[in-house]
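User: Predict the full complex structure for these chains.
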Amino acid sequence: MIILAADSSYKDKKVITIGIVSELTGLSERQIRYYEERKLVFPDRTKGGSRRYSFADVELLVEIANKIEDGVQTFEIRQEMAKQKKRNEAEEHKKMIQGQINARFGIRKK
Amino acid sequence: MIILAADSSYKDKKVITIGIVSELTGLSERQIRYYEERKLVFPDRTKGGSRRYSFADVELLVEIANKIEDGVQTFEIRQEMAKQKKRNEAEEHKKMIQGQINARFGIRKK
DNA sequence: CGTGTAAGGAATTCTGACACG
DNA sequence: CGTGTAAGGAATTCTGACACG
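Assistant: Here is the predicted structure of the four-chain assembly.
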């Protein structure tokens, strides 16, 4: 079976330190670390233990902060994200199955 | 006159520390700093004075290192880059002029 | 010329905790 | 619950210099 890496382009590379993330988002380092504690973001770590974020993480952090400002609690946000993830996975699975069908029987539209 | 920002997307944002750049490129920090000393790359700086590179910088650094491996000297690389920059600017200028002509007299092909 | 390295200092980040509410 | 802060330490980065060639 073939796994397609989700286009590891610039957006998903974990290369940004927390200080820069703080600048980019306007969030405090405290907030950023707390959202990780609540399992909402998952930065990489260097050997030394420093966090490294991707641009995708940066955008996610902004969304999280907006929701919290709207009174949504972190555990609710986590649930939303889990649901969204399931929907995405189901969609992926559907596409993959269809891809296998097409591979065997040829692609035909409609 | 309208200036088009060169699509400040992920690729050109200066957000990567020298340690990560070193990992991404395989170059030593010494090399990376030296290429800056020779005016080949221009990272941003934080208030504290730390360097911040973009993905575009990362790719440029790899190209630079390859040329040096081929025996090209840094001042030659700088000259090449200056020439390339002039060509690009001339091309930009041409497009801009054509854009103004099109704006006044309408766009017509051929 | 291009790169390695040891040196000393400054900036950055880390964790765990106390505080407020 | 979400966030600020002071505390102490560790990791990261900086510059200028000496070395080799």
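The helical segments of chain A are 18-25, 29-37, 55-69, 74-105.
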